[in-house]
């Protein structure tokens, strides 16, 4: 098709960035899981857990924000393919005394994977937790956003040790 620069590269023949042509790749079931942590004061975690934050239910809003972000990754990350995702889940749990753990799992049947969608879901969910709680704790930290596992596609299975 348009893949004049060779297979699966983000560079054209002149060395300019472009979207990878995945037309020749096989359509397969693909899944990715990513995770991250928001570290905060124990008092902030207690406020979130008891529902006593000024902006309401932090976990519900952050979960929806993460799901919506996964669906719009191609609008946020240059050169990502728009994908019709089959499933997105974002799980957010308190981990006392001072952190929130976020895990996103994204699935698709397509020619390209969903690692960026899972990572984007976690990132936006973490930023939403921060935004909803910053009046309580400006020293919060978003940490350890990472790909934990991916399956499907040409590169096979990956799982973080």
Assembly category: single chain
Rg from alpha-carbon coordinates: 18 Å
Which structural class is indicated by helix and strand composition?
A: alpha+beta
Spatial ordering of strands, largest sheet = 2-3-1-4-5
* End-to-end distance: 38 Å
The major β-sheet equals:
5 strands, antiparallel
Order of helices and strands: EHHHEEHEE
Let me know the average pLDDT: 91
Helical segment tally? 4
Q: What is the helix fraction of residues, given as a range? A: 25-40%
Brief rundown of the structure:
The chain is of the alpha+beta class and 161 residues long. The protein contains 4 helices and 5 strands, in the order βαααββαββ. The longest helix is centred in the last third of the chain and has 19 residues, at 115-133.
Topology:
Blueprint: E1 28-39, H1 42-50, H2 58-71, H3 73-76, E2 87-95, E3 99-110, H4 115-133, E4 141-151, E5 158-159
Antiparallel strand pairs: 1-3, 1-4, 2-3, 4-5
Q: Could you characterize the architecture of this molecule?
A:
Strand 2 and strand 3 (99-110) form a beta hairpin. The chain is elongated, with a radius of gyration of 18 Å. The longest helix has 19 residues, at 115-133. The protein has helices at residues 42-50, 58-71, 73-76, 115-133, and strands at residues 28-39, 87-95, 99-110, 141-151, 158-159. Strands 2-3-1-4-5 form a five-stranded antiparallel sheet. The model is unreliable at 1-5 (pLDDT under 50). The chain contains four helices and five strands.
């Amino acid at each position: 098709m348009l893949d004049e620069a060779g297979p699966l590269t983000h560079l054209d023949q002149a060395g300019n960035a472009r979207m990878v042509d995945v037309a020749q790749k096989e359509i397969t079931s693909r899944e990715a899981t990513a995770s991250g942590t928001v570290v905060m004061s124990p008092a902030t975690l207690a406020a979130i857990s008891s529902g006593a934050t000024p902006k309401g239910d932090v976990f519900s809003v952050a979960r929806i924000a993460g799901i919506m972000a996964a669906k719009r990754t191609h609008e946020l990350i240059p050169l990502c393919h728009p994908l019709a995702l089959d499933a997105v889940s974002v799980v957010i749990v308190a981990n006392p005394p001072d952190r929130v753990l976020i895990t996103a799992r994204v699935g698709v049947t397509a020619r390209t994977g969903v690692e960026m969608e899972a990572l984007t879901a976690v990132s936006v969910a973490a930023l939403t937790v921060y935004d909803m709680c910053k009046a309580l704790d400006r020293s919060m930290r978003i940490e350890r956003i990472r790909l934990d596992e991916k399956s499907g596609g040409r590169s096979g299975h990956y799982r973080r040790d």
